[in-house]
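Notebook p. 47: complex prediction with pyridoxal-5'-phosphate.
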Amino acid sequence: MNTAEPTRAAASETSGSSGPSSAGAAGGVRLSARALRTPQPPIAWLMQQAFEVPGMISLAAGFVDQKSLPATPVRDLIEELYTDSDQVLRALQYGLTGGLRGLREAIAARLEKRGMPGPVSPDHVAVTSGSQQLLYLITEALVDPGDIVLVEDPTYFVYMGVLGSAGARILGVATDDEGIIPEALEKRLREVSDAGQMHRLKMLYVMTYFQNPKGTNHSQRRREQIYEIIERWSTPENFIYILEDAAYYELRFEGEDVPFLKSLDTRNERVMTALTFSKGFAPGLRLGYGYMPPALVEPVLNLKGNHDFGSGNLSQYIAHAALASGRFDQHVEILRARYKDKRDAMLRVIREEFPAEAQYAEPAGGLYVWVTLPEGVSTSPGSRFFQAAMAERVLYVPGHYCYAQEPGRPKPENQMRLCYAYIDEAPLEEGVRRMGAAIKAAL
Ligand SMILES: Cc1ncc(COP(=O)(O)O)c(C=O)c1O
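Predicted complex, structure tokens below:
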């Protein structure tokens, strides 16, 4: 199975470059250029391995903790919904494209409470089918083929798939354990400018909280530096947006809260902040939301209308009641403790079992531990290490997938993402032990 993988990885590396000549030529099926730019996500075969190979332990899947999903609170919320028959019927009807009014109002009020400069208008909040749909819609609204989007190196690889589909040119900006390195951002902007391409640069995509895959949190200082740099390089003709992905905002289990990067956008014109009910409550609701500059709300909702006329209305009634009743916040507290325990379990076994040559960061929130092996030890599919891990029956996300692939700019291949969220402690610990054995075998 893994022998097929390098082919797929190669296909995804060329995404964004399929020109008109390749459009419509796949096996006699007349596909659009967009479909041809959209290969199977690299993670898909990893998920398949987890299901197909008996005894395989997956530290790759980015699913949330299974045991702590809010089954009882959701049952109670649905029962409460049923005490009002009119409300049930409204919940089972189509809703508004932008989302349930009461939910948008509740979200706006919460954002203000969390330091977003007010007043936050519910009209500038859109509810979407997971925050993934919001990322997609914003990309659709802003990015034409050939446009440039800056991303963190490494970044959320699924979003690189969205960008590849849109035909974007993806440029990576180096990060350290405080987030995007300001000098690296400045340097990339200078390169784009020197190449006469500022008119194609649309956006910086940045995960501000416990980023996927590194687990790092942008410090306040870095948020301010990034905002200042983008603002300085932006002009009215070549306006540069910032897409702030705050998917892991709720999952802090250590340290002080840091205001949203968007709170620096006091005129509400530059930053779109994407949040979700997936990580802090239940991904099965498939609900996310965004707070956006007014000029973007209508284009995004027009596109969303084409997708689905609005996200699941029943889910939105449940989410609204979860916020209003306090059950959402109660659940977040449970999750924080749970993920802290699971992170500790993973780190404990890493300390015991990984050779000293393996470096790793200790996340203060989120779901991931990012591991760096010595230089020259590749984690990519087909590598000796990858085969050793397969032989030990443990899966990880190869770090290479998370880097913007740019010709002439080699990116690290000696890293990997381990997720402690989904599986229980016992298999989690066993998986990390197996990983330690694979590292020792490969070194
Ligand atoms: C960084 C990041 N953003 C967005 C998403 C999308 O999540 P959802 O659509 O469930 O809100 C994910 C999912 O894992 C993610 O890791």
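Notes: Residues 1-24 have pLDDT under 50 and may be disordered. The pocket of pyridoxal-5'-phosphate is lined by residues 62, 130-132, 156, 207, 212, 245, 247, 276, 278, 283, 288 (CB under 6 Å).
Next step: compare against the earlier run before touching the bench.
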